[in-house]
Amino acid sequence: MKKTLVSASIVAAFAVGSLAGINISRADLQKSTQEHLVMATNWFQTSAENKALQIQTYNVAKEELAEIMVKKIAKDKKNKKKAKPAAVVLDIDETVLDNSPHTAWTIKNNVAYPEGWDEWIHMAKAELIPGAKDFLLAAKKLKVDIYYISNRTEAERADTVKNMKLHGLPNLDEKHLLLKSTTSQKGPRQQEIAKTHEIVMLIGDNANDLSDIFYKADLNTRYNNVDKIAKDLGVKYIQLPNPMYGDFEGAIYNYDFKKTEDQKAADRYNALKTMK
After folding, report:
1. N or C: where does the chain have the smaller number of CB atoms within 10 Å of the terminal CB?
2. Is residue 178 pLDDT above 70, yes or no?
3. What per-residue confidence (pLDDT) applies to 31?
4. Residue of 216, 238, 16, 204 lying closest to 94 (CA atoms)
5. Predicted TM-score of the model (pTM)
């Protein structure tokens, strides 16, 4: 009963607009464990630069996919073996759907993920990342099979589909929506798709969405591994911006999220590269 009441209060807080309606003093901010997210969330939600980057990224992806398909069709005609159909694989959160209102809510209520996340998903109110729908409809027109690989859970499937259907997005059946079961690693799910399709493009806001070479890698390895896929960035691998959360943060903490807030803050400061 207590959990039900807490959950109901969270939903009510979202519904009455607490995202924008809380007055926070400087003293409160100094006590907040979430203050480090304020500027990142400001940038994600309000900057012209972020919106421009998102649209630009999807515009480039759309143009590249058209070129890829022209080349694939020509290659498949020459190949005597039956060719696999093309597939595009996308993450969902901060790649197709914008969940920044949830992040903003955690900041203003001084709580951390996953607090309020289930309630946010159940609301099915996330808006689209700019450019995403145009790209997806263009991919559908090119007869490219669209798969979504997300670390949302099976319990969140119905609400996720509901949210995406509200925006008229394609390929939302069970086959094309691969959610988290036993691991957050996306490589195994990508490999399942690759059994029947040629994956011609992967899109995500986390480097782990693109390749397993980033999965649970330390901070320097993740950074240096970008060089390994550099020639395919903007072609096969499409990276979207997300300064609010992701494995870049986990790597800073050495993936130990049980650290105290003071320890995490120290890790963030120690990861800064300063002028000498």
Report:
1. C
2. yes
3. 66
4. 204
5. 0.91
